[in-house]
Specification:
alpha+beta; nine-stranded mixed sheet; 32% helix; globular
Length: 231
């Protein structure tokens, strides 16, 4: 009997890391599907805006829930343009976590896809190293939608982070002020099979691009191959 339980225990030790790795790869793959679908809808993220983004965060199926006091909980990925100045190709993803609360009457739950654009090097550098509060530690605003919108025409576009949502087929800018965004280094360990920080993934090329991220990076490299921001 002891041998049986020992065998079960050893199997669990082997299976749990493999399960965690598959879960994170699935999350990265889903982020790629979400990004591809969003850039192919008629009124998506304006090209001028996406071309000025240093990093993109994709959070598939964030669950918003509450009765009386609301909240949100999501896990996803962030990919940045390569190099300290964010001028290269889109690189290996780092896992991210979105958490936050909202007040008001919200009955039931709803899964929503979120896309966040990091528009300044400061916002990217901060988020890679610590938890930040959107609208507090970094300025955030609902992103503009439509091919004719410009990153220069709306005062809200001075925000460091622009956020979008997609739920029930509707794509729109949405404010996530009050939520927090942080690196999920436990998920990075599961994804890459070793301890690796978000900062080292983005700035030091500490890991290669996993197969699960190919769709995400191919979509962004095709849609926005060059950083056209003035910074």
């Amino acid at each position: 009997m002891k041998k049986v339980w020992l065998g079960v225990g050893l199997l669990a030790v082997v299976a749990l890391p493999a399960f965690g790795q598959k879960k994170e790869h699935d999350r990265v793959a889903n982020a790629g599907k979400v990004m591809k679908e969003i850039v192919n809808i008629p009124d998506d993220i304006p090209q001028d805006v996406l071309d000025k983004a240093d990093c993109v965060v994709v959070l598939p199926s964030v669950l918003k829930f509450a009765i009386g006091i609301g909240g949100s909980y999501g896990r996803g990925v962030m990919t940045c343009r390569g190099g300290k100045e964010f001028r290269g190709s889109w690189g290996a993803p780092t896992m991210m976590a979105l958490e936050g609360g909202s007040f008001g009457l919200q009955l039931g739950g709803q899964a929503t896809d979120f896309v966040l654009l990091l528009m300044t090097p400061r916002s990217a550098q901060n988020i890679l190293t610590t938890k930040v509060k959107l609208g507090g530690d970094v300025s955030a605003a609902a992103g503009p939608v439509g091919r004719n919108a410009s990153a220069e025409t709306d005062i809200s576009l001075r925000a460091e982070i622009l956020s979008y949502s997609r739920a029930r087929g509707l794509f729109a800018g949405i404010s996530l002020a009050g939520s927090t965004l942080r690196p999920d280094n436990d998920a990075n360990k599961s994804l890459y099979g070793k301890e690796v920080s978000a900062e080292n993934i983005v700035f030091k090329g500490a890991v290669g691009v996993p197969a699960s991220a190919r769709l995400l990076l191919a979509t962004l490299n095709k849609k926005s191959p060059k950083n056209k921001s003035s910074s």
